Amino acid sequence: MGSFNRRNTLKSLGLTGIGAAIWPYSSFPGHMTDIKKQPEYQGEIRSRPISSTGEMLPVVGLGTWIQFDVGTSDENREPLRQVLSKMREQGGKVIDSSPMYGRSEAVVGDLTHEMGNQADHFFYATKVWTSGRNEGIRQMQSSFQKMNRKTMDLMQVHNLQDWKTHLQTMDQWKKEGKIRYTGVTHYTPSAHNQLEQIVKSKAVDFVQVNYSIIDRNAEKSLLPAAKDHGVAVIVNRPYASGNLFSKVKGKALPEWAMEHDIQSWGQFFLKFILSNEAVTCVIPGTSNPKHLLDNMGAGFGRLPELNFRKKMLEYIEKI
User: Fold this and answer.
1) In sequence order, what DSSP letters do the residues of 24-43 get, joined into one string?
2) What class does CATH assign to 3-318?
3) Domain NADP-dependent oxidoreductase spans what residues (predicted)?
4) Cα separation, 175 vs 23, whole angstroms
5) Which uninterrupted H or E stretch holds 155?
6) Segment 61-120, tens digit of pLDDT
């Protein structure tokens, strides 16, 4: 399906997308308790170390699937300029893209290039999504060009496609200084065992995986393995393909959520994910600057401890 038809189809369903072929929550009711009021966050956004180097990374980033697959008009791009600007202002860094995401890489490259010296604030992550060594090299070179990068912060093998071949190339490029970190991704629980084996081999710096308050298969062994073997974790599908917002539609946020500085359902779901210490960064996507600010809010304030996590789980399971 072409990007135009895909976008219109998703809009007709009330859905838009992020990360690795997933829906974000930014188009769903309940995103913010009051989106007309700009939130204020105290202090700096929470950061966690990339296990292989100790480099600190803010815990909330940005996915670009569908949301950044737009044309060149100001009508399409101005909201995205604001999203990136506000993300930088709040301290967010990680921008995750892929050749799979249509024009998203090029749009990220164009808009960050417009920011001049501020473009280097961001942590650029993209993927290789093809088969064969030569085709992988060609595609990765194209990604560098589209994103206006001489060095890519993170190159990942998208959905494990021909991952052994691409990791060989990526390891060589890492030695040459073309890329800083390597990773593998997937968005389905059926791939968790294979991701875990790669993690245990310490073949990569990052693993990107689906995880949410109602999709916790990664908790069983993949996330613990990543923590034990020094592999950073990026979380996609934090809202279970939008099912979480359907689940809480019309329901008020529980008053006790404020005990951990949770101001919206979106922050409720994100803070649950971030309360798992194995998680380095989560990448909700949006093209709405107000929603971006709400996303970033999950990186500020207190995070749930074990007993509070259980309370959150029980509440969602009863709905």
Assistant:
1) -STTSTTS-S-TTSPP---S
2) alpha beta
3) 60-304
4) 35
5) strand 152-157
6) 999 999 999 999 999 999 999 999 999 999 999 999 999 999 999 999 999 999 999 999
